[in-house]
C-alpha cells in the first residue's frame, strides 16, 4: 500500500536531492556540458560575503517572523476555536489570505505601499508616504509584515485544531477552582498546545529558509542586497548568473540547515512517541 507513495518520494524527493548534491561538485551554466569542479564551488561559496549576508538575513527573518507570527497565531487560533457563530464568521475572514497566491499578494502590497499612488495618497495620510520598499531598513519590516499577514491564518488554523482537542473537563475543573480566563489560558491552553507549537514552529522555521516567491516579486532582493535571503541568492546565482554549481551548494546548505533545525525543534519538545498531547489525563 505504501509502494506508490514511496516511488513518488524517491522520484521527486530523493533523486533530485542527490542530483543537486552531485551538481554542487560540478561546473555547469545550465545549457552546455557538465564538467567536474571538485571542491571549487564549495570554496567559492563558503568564502563569499554575499552568502554570509544572505545567511544572516535568513536567520533574522526566521527569528523575527517566529516572534511575530507565533503569539498572533495562538491568540487567533484560540479565539476562533470557540463554537459561537460570530467566531466562525470571523475565522472565515481571518483565513482569506490563504486563498491568495504569494505573487498576487506581493503585487497588491507593492501598489498599496507606493508613496505616490498607494494608500498614502488614496487616504490622504502623509505619514504612510514612506519609501517602504526602497529603504534598506524599512524593507525587511515590510517583508516580515507581509509574510505574517499571509501565513498567520495557516498557523492559526493549526492552533484552532489543537485547542479544540483539549477536553472541556479541564476548563470546567479550572472554573470550579475559581480560575479566570487568563489563568486558564496560561495554565491549561498553552501547556496542552506544547506539541502543536513545536509542529507550527517547525513549519515556520523551514518555511523561512525556503521563502522565495513573495520576496522575489515584492523586492527582487533589493534595495541592494538588503532582502537577498538564501533561497533568493540560490535563484539569482543559478538562473541569473548561470552558476548552477554554486547555486547547488546553497541548495544543499538549505536542506541540511532545514533538517538540522527541524530535528532540533523536535528534540527541544522532548516528545515521547508513546505519550499524548493531553498530558495529565
Residue-averaged pLDDT: 90
Order of helices and strands: HEEHHHHHHHHHHHH
- Determine the strand fraction and express it as a percent band: under 5%
Shape: globular
Secondary-structure-based class equals mainly alpha
Largest sheet: 2 strands, antiparallel
Q: Report the count of strand segments.
A: 2
What share of residues is helical? Answer: 55-70%
Strand line-up of the largest beta sheet: 1-2
Uncertain segments? none
Instruction: State the oligomer.
Output: single chain
Question: Your description of this structure?
Answer:
The structure is a single chain. With 281 residues, the protein is mostly helical. The protein has helices at residues 3-23, 40-46, 49-80, 85-94, 102-112, 119-123, 138-164, 168-176, 181-192, 194-209, 213-218, 230-240, 244-269; strands spanning 26-27, 35-36. The protein is globular, with a radius of gyration of 23 Å. 26% of the residues are buried. The model has no long low-confidence stretch (mean pLDDT 90).
List the helices and strands and how they pair.
Layout: H1 3-23, E1 26-27, E2 35-36, H2 40-46, H3 49-80, H4 85-94, H5 102-112, H6 119-123, H7 138-164, H8 168-176, H9 181-192, H10 194-209, H11 213-218, H12 230-240, H13 244-269
Antiparallel strand pairs: 1-2
Helix pairs in contact: 1-13, 2-13, 3-7, 3-10, 7-10, 10-13, 12-13
